[in-house]
Amino acid sequence: MPSFLRSRPAQVLSVLLVLEALVFHLMPSDEAIPLTRPLEEFPTEVAGWKMQGEYPIEEEVQELLKADHTLNRVYQDPKRGLLLNLFVAYFRSQRAGVSPHSPKVCLPGSGWEAKASRVVTIQLPGHSRPLHVNRYLVSRDAQRSVVLYWYQTPRRVVANEYLAKLYLMLDSIRYHRSDTALVRIVAPAGEAGEAAADDAALRMLEAFFDPLRNFLPH
């Protein structure tokens, strides 16, 4: 057995990938692909958060990402004046092996080192079920940032990559859909500190979650 397959997470992921390939092979060819609103039309101001910059995905990055729609903007926090990055990658179908790239892989590949990670539970006003999202503290040289990210499917928000794969298979069988989105918020922990970055990231999630749902099929 190859050395990388000796770990339990690698074994679980390998099984899920094999099952995913089998499910997609057995699925009817008429996958239901929903209509979407272009993310480019997402508001430049949301609950006092104002866009300060928009950055198209570089061509070589898009060739690897293969997302159907992306959003990469910087908004200013109306409370503290911090600048936060909002990144969304939406995939209309994952049948061809296209799927979101986990920030656990992308961030280290960009030179960021994970210092701490956990799943946080957030209860949004007006929502009966709490959200479970990933919270990372990353650093690069003297810079530190708080990162929140999650996978958003038509029926749920998922933090765990393995669970996202499992739901993908179940939804593909039951609903003939495999669309999903990766949503990521990055809050720099500069002079204001880590606690202020945490607070800003959570408030951004609370302000943007429902407006984003109008652009992501559900």
Characterization of this structure:
The chain is of the alpha+beta class. It has one domain (3-213). Helices cover 31% and strands 31% of the residues. The protein has helices spanning 8-26, 59-65, 103-109, 161-175, 194-213, and strands at 45-46, 49-54, 69-76, 83-91, 113-122, 131-140, 143-153, 156-158, 180-188. Strands 1, 2, 3, 4, 5, 6, 7, 8 and 9 form a 9-stranded antiparallel β-sheet that branches. Helix 1 packs parallel to helix 4. The longest helix is centred in the last third of the chain and has 20 residues, at 194-213. The chain is globular and about 50 Å long. The model has no long low-confidence stretch (mean pLDDT 84).
Low-confidence stretches: none
Helical run tally:
5
What would you call the shape? Answer: globular
Radius of gyration: 18 Å
**What share of residues are in beta strands?**
25-35%
Largest sheet: 9 strands, antiparallel
Average residue pLDDT: 84
